[in-house]
Amino acid sequence: MATDLKRTPLYPLYADYPGARCIDFGGWELPVQFSGIQKEHDAVRQQAGLFDVSHMGEFIVTGSEAEAFLQRLTTNDVAKLADGQAQYTLMCYPYGGVVDDLLVYRIASDHFMVVVNAANIGKDFEWMREQLTDDVTLENKSDELALLALQGPNAVAIMALAAGPFDCGKLAPFRFATEVSVGGVQTLVSRTGYTGEDGFELYMAADQAQQVWQALFAVGEAFGLMPAGLGARDTLRFEARLPLYGQELSARISPLEAGLNPFVKLDKGDFIGRDALLRQKTDGVPRKLVGIEMIDRGIPRSHYPVLTADGKPIGEVTSGTQSPTLKRSLGLALIETGFAGLGTEVWVEIRGKLLKAEVVKAPFYKRPPKEGAL
Known about the structure:
The chain is α+β, with helices and mostly antiparallel strands. The chain folds into 3 domains: 11-51 and 144-239, Probable tRNA modification gtpase trme, domain 1 (Gyrase A, domain 2, 2-Layer Sandwich), CATH 3.30.1360.120; 57-140, Aminomethyltransferase beta-barrel domains (Alpha-Beta Plaits, 2-Layer Sandwich); 286-360, Aminomethyltransferase beta-barrel domains (Elongation Factor Tu (Ef-tu), domain 3), CATH 2.40.30.110. The protein is 18% helix and 33% strand. It is built from 7 helices and 19 strands. β16 and β17 (329-336) form a beta hairpin. α1 packs across α6 (230-239). The longest helix has 12 residues, at 209-220. The two termini are 38 Å apart.
């Protein structure tokens, strides 16, 4: 593995896991797995998994006009946030393509944290800097902060022991608390995640990340906690139909084409990309992101062409795999709207062969109702 790749503060701990295998992920040396993708995927669905996602980017936006700045920059309604609340949203170009999808955390009326995708840190920061107005300060804190994601049905039980007197279980989805002590380290704990399961994301100073990781495992092993890598993170988010930038979202794919309409508030007032998205909503999107299931034997992979029976190209697969939970060959595909109806037969080109598939409902997996999980 080339040594010029970036490494997270937790990289030295990977050596504690003999099965850990790292890959180059957008310029980062990150673990694709620790003990096996299927095993880690199952742990998150059934018990708990811990992800090192410290490669993600964090920007701090402050100033009297911070809310107005983010309101103009993003598609969701930042004005609806209260202190201690987070929001999923997107930044768009004027023509409606996506700069990035992100989380906005309101710490105070003049203090926000924006969390962006690792591969887009430089691009996003420059885009936001170009839109800056008076009385707004933008700081890139990505190198100073680490991020861990504790996900799975046993996440609440683990945090009950790890977070001392603070009851993280009382946090509602997309709510967060600052200054929560985890293993003696001050963390921001958020009831968010990217797996389709319950769980938390924990932000802390980069030089204290190892201490938090070890504290979570000290109490978590009794609850089946396992370290999990990028492979399981991808299969988990895929089953839950959570988009990945560069696949389901890009500069060439709008949020409406990706089916993210609930996060695009066209009635909130002006924002960058609103006019283009309003036209799309009025005229109808030319393409839609749909779920597909293979009827013929084969696995749909990213960028595989999707065609009609007579060979007319109608789109492409954005993500696909043999679902670890459902044991079905599934994909997400961005295809012409006229072929997006449930039950429509389409063909996927796999290694030069056209194999039959069917448009099916997505997300493929939804978390079952709460039960006591141990």
